[in-house]
Amino acid sequence: MKTTHAQINRILHEMPPITLDEMHQIRLMKRTDSKYVTNVTTLLRLLRLAQGHYYAQQNEGSFISPYATTYWDLKGGPTMFSLHQAGHLPRTKVRVRTYVSSAQSFLEVKKKDNHGKTSKKRVSVPSVDAVMNDHVGEDFLHQRTGLTFNMLQPTVGNSFSRITLVNYEKTERLTIDFGLHFHNYQTDCDKDMDDAVIIELKRDGRAPSPILPLLRTLRIKPSGFSKYCIGSVVTNEGLRVNRFKKRLIKIGKAVARA
Predict the structure, then answer these.
(1) Residue 62's domain spans which residues?
(2) Total of domains in the chain
C-alpha cells in the first residue's frame, strides 16, 4: 500500500492543488451522483489521463486523506441492514466518520426518503470511543431518529484512503477511495479489499464532464458500492445476502480486470 500511495502522490503532485476552503465554495445546484468500481492499476491510468483537466484537493500539504467510519444498527429486527438489503424506503444510517489526519469525528445520520432523496445531518463528537462507550451525541441521535444508543449496537467499521479531484470548470467533484479495510464488531472478523477502488462522481447535470469519456476509454462502468453493506456482507457470514450476490460478483470482476 505504501507503493500505491507513492505512485498516486507522484501523479497528484503534477496537478494544480485546490484547498478545502476553495472546495467549500463549489455548489452543484442540479447534482447527479454516480459510483464506479475499478482497481488500483486502472486508477493510476485514469489519474494520468485526468491530468490537465482537474485540480487535486490538498489538505495540510497532503493529497491523500485517511478516513475511518463506524456504523450502528438496531439490536432487534428489522435491522437497518435488512431494510437496505430489501431496498426499503425510507431508511436510515447511523455512523461516526473520523478524519484521521485532523482527529475530527462526527456523529452522522443519513436518511433516504420515499422519493430516494438523501439528506445528511451531523454533529461533532470527541471520538468514536466517546460515542461507543459514553453515548456522546445521544441528544442529536434522538432528535434525528427517535432512537437511543441503548437501542443500537456498533456493527461494522471501515478505514480507507481518499483523494478528491475537481474539474477546472468546477462543475464536478470526484472522490476516489482505496485501501479499504473492514472490521465487524459482532463477528470480530476483518477483511481487506486493498485493490478495490470506489469512484464517486458528483456533477452538475447540465455541464459536460471531462471524466466520463476517460471512464469509457478505460471500460470503468457504473456500479453501486455501499461500504456499509459490502463491509457487513464480507465480514458476517450469518447475514442474508441474496440481494448482494450479483453485486459482489460484479465488483470482483471489476477489481480483477487488468
Answers:
(1) 2-256
(2) 1
